[in-house]
Each structure stands twice: as C-alpha cells, then as structure tokens.
C-alpha cells in the first residue's frame, strides 16, 4: 500500500478517527521497570533470608554461557550479580562457540543431576550449529528457570502452574503491579516468538479462575505478516499494546488509542542518526506514544530489569519446589511405615489420634531430613507464597 492509499485508508477508517481524538493534556505514566524490579528483589531477598533463618540452604542459579557475544555476557553478569545481591549463590560455566551440541547436552545433564543446583539456564542465542529446542528440552523441567522446556510451555498453554518464561512473567507483573485492568480488555501482542510473544498472549488471554490464572483479555497476536494498515487498525482498538516484534519504533503515536497501556518488550541497538553513537531503543516510539498512552514502559529501564527479577523469582520457586518434593517423599515414607504398623489405622475410631502421632512423627522425620540436606536444623514451617507458578502445598496434598 502506497502513501496516498495509506492516507485514504486513514481518512475513511472509523478506527483511525477513534484513535485521533483530541490529544489528552496528560502525558503517560512512565512505568519504572527498575522500581518494580527492586520490589521483587526485596520480596525474593526476604524469602531467602527467611529460608536461611530456618536452616534451609540458599537457592543456587546455574548458568551456561556459550560463545563471546558481548550482550549475552552482560546479561549473564547481571543475573549472577543480582542473584548474589539477593542472597543466592550462582555459578556460570563458560564454553566456546565451537562446543558441539553433544558436549553441551552432556554438560546440561551433569547440571541437572547436580543436587546443589536449584535453577539452570542456558543463555540464548546459541551458535547456529546448535539446535536451540534440543537444548531447552534437555534442561530438567523443574530446574528450567527460563520456562522454555516443552513441558513448561505445554503447561503454560494448558493454564497449569509452571515455570513462566521470565519476559512474559515480567510483562504480567508490570500489568498487575501497576493495576492495569485486563479482564474483558482488548490486547494486541505484536510479535509471536515462542519465548516472548506467544507466552505473553497465553498469560493474558487465559481464564483468571484457572490453576495458573490468566488475564481474561481478548488477545490478538499480530506478526510480521500482518500488513501495517491492519496492524494499525488493531492497535488503535487496543486497551493494551505489547510490542515484542524486534522492530525499532514500529509502534507510533498514531497507532495508539488515547489512554491505552503500552508495554515495550523490544531491545534494539541502533545507530543514533544525530550523534552517530549506538543506542538502545524499543519497538515503541516512546516520545510520540507517551503523549497518547495512559501507561508506557521505557527502554531501557522497563521490561528488561523486570526480566532479570523474574529469573530470580523462578530460581527461588525452583528451590522451594525441591524442598517440598523432599518433604512429600518423607511424608510418604512415614505414612507407609505407619500403615504397615497399624493396618486398621484409617478405619479405627482412634485414627484421628493416631493421625496426630503420624504428624508429629512426620515432623520429626522432616526436620531430620532437612537438617541432613542442609547441614543445619529446622524448627518452624511457614507456607510459601503461591502465585502463577508452582503451588507446593498442592503438591503435598496430592
Ligand atoms: N536464556 C535466556 N536467554 C535470553 C533471554 C532469556 O530470558 N533467557 N532474554 C534475552 C536477554 N536477557 C536475558 O537473558 C535480557 C536482555 C535485556 C535485559 C535488560 O535489562 N536490558 C536493559 C538494557 C540493557 C542494555 O543496556 O543493553 C533494559 O531494558 O533496561 C535483561 C535481560 C535474550 N537471551
């Protein structure tokens, strides 16, 4: 479609007119991803401190970094530094870009089996000769803090609790913590990548009453084959626009409805035409769009810092999951031992009393098991906070 044609489309379209209501005198609220990330860091840090106070070990983040891509090295450093700040331990295994897929899979297998590692991720992108899907599927699903394993993706699509990919979780938390309404709203996700656009769309369209609650929004996914005029028609109707296309400044002021929320997931390095220096921009023309939107995230300082925070949260969840699975196993052996001793236990009028004894015996076993696993002692137990992800108390009551 040429320029004149495009203009004609704009003039005829009601959608265009709707999007061109007189501009509001209020500029958008700029959502600080850095500030929200600080909130999450504090929550994770407090949980870890509480676990440590109870004698539990600290979560450990394992990272595999292949090659010498400068940005990847920065992101990994950022993750491991944040982990340390929050009270976790971490380790990064560096491998050259020449590593074979087989060697990489063996390394992942070793880290899967290493009981000291709570969460594991392989930094992307990988060199072309390595099959990214095979690598993501090699990570144990319960350690998969990126949420890229096929089992975690499957669970996400079935609205089950799972490791939610960090960037999608970041967008979700930004929306929730800012108080942006999603139920019944029109959302356009621009970009359909399996690691970002698709999981964001999954979170936002799904039912808020399901095991992994969703946003109950009407979600449209646009992508590179969506013609620009059609994209504009869709975004002009959207209450929330999520830009995750990897196209610098794709979303301009004229494409956004007055009062919409605009979340920019794009991270594009471009050469500034004025200074000639390289700089980071998003998929949204921030200066233009902020005049029409009610909420907008900046780049840098928006979704990026939140993504790192969500990796931290996922690592904590992975460690909690390990603790609860261990407890479940202890509980099962105690129950087995008791039913062997007292075959009529659950038919007996006195079973309630007996159950109390089982519980106290279980607690004894549990404390012993925790102590042996952590080298410390355990005295108290507090239910973990539950959220989009795992619900350990559900696992125990299975
Ligand atoms: N295994 C993974 N690999 C990659 C992921 C991922 O989630 N898992 N995502 C990206 C890289 N990434 C995290 O790994 C990431 C990218 C950017 C940021 C960030 O905070 N960006 C800053 C700006 C940073 C800069 O100046 O360059 C911002 O937006 O403010 C965090 C994480 C691909 N690989």
TrEMBL record:
One of its GO terms (cellular component) is mitochondrial matrix. It holds the Pfam family THF_DHG_CYH. GO terms for biological process: carboxylic acid metabolic process; tetrahydrofolate interconversion. Residues 1-27 are annotated as: Disordered. It catalyses: (6R)-5,10-methenyltetrahydrofolate + H2O = (6R)-10-formyltetrahydrofolate + H(+); (6R)-5,10-methylene-5,6,7,8-tetrahydrofolate + NAD(+) = (6R)-5,10-methenyltetrahydrofolate + NADH. Keywords: Hydrolase, Magnesium, Mitochondrion, Multifunctional enzyme, NAD, One-carbon metabolism, Oxidoreductase. Gene3D superfamilies: Leucine Dehydrogenase, chain A, domain 1, NAD(P)-binding Rossmann-like Domain. The keyword Thylakoid does not apply. Its cofactor is Mg(2+). SUPFAM superfamilies: Aminoacid dehydrogenase-like, N-terminal domain, NAD(P)-binding Rossmann-fold domains. It is found in: Mitochondrion. PANTHER family: BIFUNCTIONAL METHYLENETETRAHYDROFOLATE DEHYDROGENASE_CYCLOHYDROLASE 2, MITOCHONDRIAL (PTHR48099:SF7), C-1-TETRAHYDROFOLATE SYNTHASE, CYTOPLASMIC-RELATED (PTHR48099). This is Bifunctional methylenetetrahydrofolate dehydrogenase/cyclohydrolase 2.
């Amino acid at each position: 479609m040429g320029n004149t044609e495009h203009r004609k489309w704009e003039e005829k379209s009601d959608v265009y007119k709707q999007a061109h209501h007189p501009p509001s005198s209020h500029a958008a609220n700029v959502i600080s991803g850095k500030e929200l990330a600080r909130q999450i860091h504090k929550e994770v840090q407090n949980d870890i401190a509480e676990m440590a106070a109870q004698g539990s070990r600290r979560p450990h983040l394992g990272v595999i970094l292949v090659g010498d891509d400068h940005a990847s090295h920065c992101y990994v450093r950022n993750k491991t530094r944040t982990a340390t700040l929050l009270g976790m331990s971490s380790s990064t295994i560096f491998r050259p870009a020449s590593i074979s897929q087989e060697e990489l899979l063996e390394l992942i297998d070793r880290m899967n089996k290493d009981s000291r590692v709570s969460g594991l991720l392989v930094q992307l992108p990988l060199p072309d000769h390595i099959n990214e899907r095979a690598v993501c599927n090699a990570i144990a699903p319960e350690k998969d803090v990126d949420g890229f394993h096929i089992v975690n993706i499957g669970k996400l699509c079935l609205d089950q609790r799972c490791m939610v990919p960090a960037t999608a979780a970041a967008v979700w938390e930004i929306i929730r913590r800012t108080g942006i309404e999603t139920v019944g709203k029109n959302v356009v996700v621009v970009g359909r990548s399996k690691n970002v656009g698709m999981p964001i769309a999954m979170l936002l369209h799904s039912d808020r009453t399901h095991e992994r609650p969703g946003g109950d929004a009407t979600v449209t996914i646009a992508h590179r084959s969506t013609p620009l005029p059609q994209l504009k028609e869709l975004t002009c109707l959207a209450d929330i626009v999520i830009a995750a296309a990897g196209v610098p400044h794709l979303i301009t002021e004229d494409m956004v409805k007055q009062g919409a929320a605009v979340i920019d997931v794009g991270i594009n390095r471009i050469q500034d035409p004025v200074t000639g220096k390289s700089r980071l921009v998003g998929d949204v023309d921030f200066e233009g769009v902020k005049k029409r939107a009610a909420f907008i995230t900046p780049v840098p300082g928006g979704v990026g810092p939140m993504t790192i925070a969500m990796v931290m949260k996922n690592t904590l969840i992975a460690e909690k999951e390990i603790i609860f699975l261990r407890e479940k196993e202890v509980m099962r052996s105690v129950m087995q031992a008791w039913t062997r001793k007292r075959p009529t236990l659950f038919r007996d009028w006195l079973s309630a009393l007996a159950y109390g004894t089982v519980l106290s015996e279980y607690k004894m076993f549990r404390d012993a098991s925790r102590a042996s696993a952590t080298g410390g002692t355990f005295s108290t137990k507090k239910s973990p906070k539950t959220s989009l992800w795992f619900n350990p108390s559900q696992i125990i009551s299975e």
